[in-house]
Amino acid sequence: MASLSELPALRNYSKPFGIRFLEYIKKGKLSYKTHQAIVLIVTFLAYTCYHATRKTTSIVKSALDPQSPDVGLKFPWRMTYLSSPAEKKGFSWVLGDGWAPFNGSDGSALLGELDVAFLSVYALGMYFSGHLGDRMNLRVFLTVGMVGTGLFTSLFGVGYWAKIHSFYYFLIVQMIAGLFQSTGWPSVVAVVGNWFGKKKRGLIMGIWNAHTSVGNIAGSLIASALLSYGWGWSFVVPGLLIAFVGLLVFLFLPVSPESVGADKEEDEVGSPRKIGEGLTEPLLGSDAEIKETAVGFIEAWKIPGVAPFAFCLFFAKLVAYTFLYWLPYYISHTGILIYLFDLQF
């Protein structure tokens, strides 16, 4: 067992390399608030990338299964739409015939099976990811999840250049990608919870949780912009992006104040305090013991507010993922676009 004199050295060794590099440049320890800012920025970017890679499938669906050359969205749509005869004014993707096996009569069903497989594994993986996250270094766990997500998101796109037309290849890749995707939410929430108290947690979470929408927007823009170069790029580029941010997580993310030796009291020296208000060593020790004890599945459901929140989130996610995965595909395969552009022109 390490002696008390060796603890500072061990603590410094456990710091992420990026934090040690910033302290080397600064020639001193980073403040508690600086650590909090790093946590917010890094976790925000991390979960933004999770949603960006998750969004690409909904954009590429209409390229994989355009149904017919008269339905979909052409590139560039303005030139094609305006130059086509009135009776053939429609929209189709660049690929025209789509991508086997999704371009057949059962293409929509196959795409639906991919979504069901992905989300089923994702939901099941959330349970195990929560357990693993409580027992592992969250920085390493999150890094592995992001790099794995990037790898299997990219492998889906590799099917474009490798001329892969096996449904089971895309199914297995999506399932494994869903498993890695499940590492994101439990990890980032746990890290943010370690750094922010109850007083400011509502405000912080309200602002920080915008990563979901930002990720969906960014994923849609990236996938749409790259689609005309080949649908494979719409998967590979977001996959490389999340893997890169995963490396930033490994280099810069401080999991908890204890892991980097950050003391909140050092930033509040000037504030008046009552006698006995400061934290003592036994209290810190007991708190560490509580954090090391993982909560079981049944115990988690017994926590007040968990069950109502779970049911509310279930119905919210039901609507959200319906729009996330199928709205772009639905719009491109109905007469809505034709009707809107007829009104415009």
UniProtKB/TrEMBL annotation:
Example of a GO cellular component annotation carried by this entry: membrane
Top-rank taxon, per record: Eukaryota
Any matching Pfam family: MFS_1
Residues spanning the membrane: 37-53, 109-128, 140-162, 168-196, 208-229, 235-255
PROSITE patterns the record matches: MFS
Coiled coil: none
Keyword terms: Membrane, Sugar transport, Transmembrane, Transmembrane helix, Transport
Cross-referenced SUPFAM superfamilies: MFS general substrate transporter (SSF103473)
Entry membrane topology: Multi-pass membrane protein
A single GO BP: phosphate ion homeostasis
GO molecular function, one term: transmembrane transporter activity
Protein's cellular compartments: Membrane
Residue ranges annotated for the Major facilitator superfamily (MFS) profile domain, each copy included: 39-345
Family: Belongs to the major facilitator superfamily. Organophosphate:Pi antiporter (OPA) (TC 2.A.1.4) family.
Full protein name: Major facilitator superfamily (MFS) profile domain-containing protein
Source organism of the structure: Gossypium schwendimanii
